[in-house]
């Protein structure tokens, strides 16, 4: 994810949204309670990806994985009329 190799395991996913991009972080601390317990020293990967707009609003925050034409997997997340895609290279 980004320039980081993330071993198989259990992680917490954090997203920091802004108007034009989201910073997505993969974190080792799986026992925290949302962003209130966020510990940046436990991050194993971080990537900033651009936002894009969709025509139809997404009522509930949604997450999906799909195989992109490049052969990579993308983690697609969206809410309202904003979506982001995090490219993931499988090793």
**Main sheet: which strands, in order across?**
1-2-3
Number of strands: 5
Number of helices: 0
Distance between the termini: 11 Å
Largest sheet: 3 strands, antiparallel
Output the radius of gyration.
14 Å
Estimate the strand proportion: over 45%
What structural class should be given to the helix and strand makeup? mainly beta
User: What is the succession of H and E elements?
Assistant: EEEEE
* Average predicted local confidence, pLDDT: 93
- Poorly predicted parts: none
How would you sum up the global shape? globular
Q: Helicity, in percent?
A: under 10%
Question: Could you characterize the architecture of this molecule?
Answer:
The model has no long low-confidence stretch (mean pLDDT 93). A three-stranded antiparallel sheet has the order 1-2-3, with no helix packed on it. A two-stranded antiparallel ribbon has the order 4-5. Strand 4 and strand 5 form a beta hairpin. With 91 residues, the protein is mainly beta. The termini are close together. Helix content is 0%, strand content 58%.
Describe the structure in brief:
With 91 residues, the protein is mostly beta strands. The chain has strands at residues 12-17, 21-27, 43-50, 52-67, 73-88. It contains no helices and five strands.
Task: Produce the secondary structure layout.
Elements: E1 12-17, E2 21-27, E3 43-50, E4 52-67, E5 73-88
Antiparallel strand pairs: 1-2, 2-3, 4-5
Please tag this protein with its features:
91 residues, three-stranded antiparallel β-sheet, two-stranded antiparallel ribbon, globular
């Amino acid at each position: 994810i980004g320039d980081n190799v993330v071993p198989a395991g259990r992680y917490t996913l954090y997203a920091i949204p802004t108007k034009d991009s989201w910073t997505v972080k993969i974190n080792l601390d799986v026992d925290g309670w949302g962003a209130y317990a966020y510990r940046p020293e436990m991050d194993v990967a971080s990537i900033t990806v651009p936002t894009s707009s969709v025509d139809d609003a997404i009522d509930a925050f949604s997450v999906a994985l799909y195989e992109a034409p490049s052969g990579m997997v993308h983690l697609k997340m969206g809410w309202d009329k904003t979506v982001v895609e995090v490219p993931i290279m499988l090793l």
